[in-house]
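Table S2 (text version). Query chain:
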Amino acid sequence: MEHAKDHFPEEIQQRILHAAEARFQQYGYNKTTMAEIARDCDMSAANLYRYFENKLAIGAALTCNCLNKDIDNLKQIVLDKQFSPVDKLEKFVLATLDFTHRQWSETPRLNEMVTAICHERMDIVDQHVQNKQALLITLLREGNQQGSFEVADPEVTAEAILTATTLFDVPLLMPLFSYEAFERKAKNLVSLVLNGLLKH
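Corresponding structure-token output:
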């Protein structure tokens, strides 16, 4: 019996995503089939395809949800009025590291999904990078307005900072160092970047 039919489409989609996430977490993205997800949702595979074209579409939706959590967290930092732009930049980089490390250490199979989806859907990666860059631009402009920074081109500078902090934004790189070593490297990098940003 397909109980999902009793709900609104949005509720059904969320139910599917929840079931898929649980299965991906337990068995891995690559080993999971649409038929298994449908069974977990107590619906037929044919009904599942009414809501998601394929497993890639489900994985893409879950990946976007995951990356949006990262953006929401960074946005809170950038918009927080109690911190200076200098403090915000360090918190921004450290929050990026913390999110990436937790994804790698706490949900390794979901991280497998995110990696697979990002290879197939570069548009998701591009959008995530654009969102992070937009937040950094806001932070840099605030620093200029408050007289803390002297940044001639916030757009170019934001892109450069993202490039410099890539080490802290890629889960596959997390086995390279301990978290403490990554944190030390992140703080050292922020200090170096600030030397170039601060108004002298």
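Notes on Table S2: The chain has two domains: 3-48, 55-197. Confidence is low (pLDDT under 50) at residues 1-6.
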